[in-house]
Amino acid sequence: MSDSENDFNNINGNNRKVLDSLDPSCNELKHAYDTCFNGWFDDTFLKGEHKTKEIPCDALLQIYSACVKTALKARKIELDDLSSEMNNNNTSGDRNDKRVE
Amino acid sequence: MGKYYENCSTFAYSWEQIVTAFWKRYPNPFSTHVLSEDTLNREIIQGNTLFTRRILTKTNRVPKWGERFVKSTTVAIVEESYVDRKTKILTTYTRNIGLNRIMSVTEKVIYTPDPSNPGHTVANRMAWIDSQMYGFRRAIEAFGLERFRTNSARASAGFVHILQILYPNYQNKLALMSLHASSVPSFDETKEKFKEKAKKAAGEIARQSAEKISLVSNANVDS
């Protein structure tokens, strides 16, 4: 096994390899948020133990996604562009894709 | 017009394992071209469904016949997912943003428990590939389809790689049990014909494009 494969395999525990944010300045927020979310997802959501619509990590997400949105703007990636079509989804997850004929 | 592609694969892991690993599937040795992932929105809808919108970036590899005129860049992908805990359905949509006129790839994947084995999960993958580049869209679409076929196999391999690390003791001998693929409408061009057309198209693009053209060759996150 090559070294790089070993790196990838170091996924359990604290030294798990994860992807970074598209902007280094958002990394710290991203990793804090992901850790919070993954814990909630496995221990609360999947077990059906969430009582409200609130996700405990929401406050973190707000700061973190603001950072990402600024970074997208700086890169001239249009958020309008990305949400226009997908925002028209119904929210049940069984969207009829416009592209299907 | 455009091209449509679908395949179906079975993972020897439970649906819960699949959805947990879904958030952790990058990086993996099969998807080294995925550079970043960020969460933009996340909310619980209808009580038991988690909606998430993420943005990913990846390197934009170009085909051999396009190398001389296409600038290599990164491309941004939007991934939207719905995890329905009650019905055990994970639905994901991904598409490239920007550069859609040249080539747009939309992918939908539905992960559900295998009806014949609740410990396994079936993934139905559908993709729509189209181009609005007058004159050579057929060639670009054919290229996109060919690329998508190869890449969806790599995506599955990468996912299995992560599953094996997260669940080393699970029944993973046959981690990816089967893969059935089909392409509709029938892909009637032979590979040789396709290559020729692609080359022709490349020449055409090179001639016409004073504007910067970046071919979205990797438009799908998983590809």
TrEMBL record, chain A:
Coiled coil: none
Reaction equations catalysed: a 1,2-diacyl-sn-glycero-3-phosphate(in) = a 1,2-diacyl-sn-glycero-3-phosphate(out)
MF-aspect GO terms: phosphatidic acid transfer activity
Keywords: Disulfide bond
One GO BP: phospholipid translocation
Disulfide bond listed as a keyword: yes
Protein's recorded name: TP53-regulated inhibitor of apoptosis 1
Species, as recorded: Folsomia candida
From TrEMBL, chain B:
Region forming the signal peptide: none
Positions of the PRELI/MSF1 domain: 2-171
Taxonomy, superkingdom: Eukaryota
Entry GO terms, CC: mitochondrial intermembrane space
Name of one Pfam family that matches: PRELI
InterPro entries with a match to the protein in the record: PRELI/MSF1_dom (IPR006797), Slowmo/Ups (IPR037365)
Protein name per UniProt: Protein preli-like
Organism per entry: Folsomia candida (Springtail)
Lineage: Eukaryota, Metazoa, Ecdysozoa, Arthropoda, Hexapoda
